[in-house]
């Protein structure tokens, strides 16, 4: 008999009932250091008092009205995002998947309104992850994502990751956009080089096409800048955001320039819940903290500390690890065996990590993790690796 919850998840046998900052407390009382943060979601940790205050205050006033009416909290968050980014306008969603759907629609509508309806192709890359909707899986293109879900949405061209020559050759009169993650998350913590991102921006400008960046996982302070593309000194035309922007409350967004969004007029897109008062109240509180230059400087300092300790960990366990890679507090340990083995060994050591492709275990802690917690996290990872190496 099928379970009452659709069995699409392979869950760990853990049931957390409380969170405190970087810690998760299991029902049996065990305390786990959380280096997953809900897959890069809880950027300010669990039960953050500022987010609790924002949510509680708003919950006591108004929960939901729909986008038939003005939503002051939504306007406030849009203004903050526009002030701190390249964007001129923002549409709010509930998730990264929904943000992908709009980004695809926006790029295609842009060229349709310019009397170029043939420009529908979007170039994407191996190892990418853009959500699990029909557009998202078609964009990623991998068999793991698409098998059994055909026919696939057409209009996506798949290239190898960082193959710059193939990218130049792939642009045609049917191309409308390049869509890429500045740092691949699900694909195994693979950062694009600054030179590659700059090259993509130049190609888009040269051919008059749009650059779509998926910063659902690598954005909102995760790499030590508010958004990862800032390291390369470029700006996109459209950007997908989610995860960290809500700090644990479901919230996503699509940010765009006025030019890229020009085709999206009244009635072309909508959402019942997107940008609801509670989500946006929390999003404003997240932005007030994460967009602060002093906070981002601390993310960079702590990422250096964590990386240094992880390099020592890798050197101490050459039978378990190959390398450390990533950016900011979006780091990966490339394993010599299956990453789930280290994840499971970590549970025994009471530390939470997240598996990814390419034999990588992701480390995505809350951005306000302390120095002491970093030291303790690496101690627990060392214990997990020692146990795994002895097995």
**Major β-sheet profile:** 7 strands, mixed
Identify the strand order in the major beta sheet.
4-12-11-10-7-5-6
- Unreliable stretches, pLDDT < 50, 5 or more residues? none
Number of strands: 17
Radius of gyration: 21 Å
Which strand-content bin applies to the residues? 15-25%
Helix content: 25-40%
The class by helix and strand makeup works out as: alpha/beta
**What would the principal axes of the Cα set say about the shape?**
globular
Number of discrete helical segments: 12
Which whole number gives the mean pLDDT?
97
Element order, helices and strands?
A: EEEHHHEHEHHEHEEEHEEEHHEEHEEEH
Distance between the termini: 36 Å
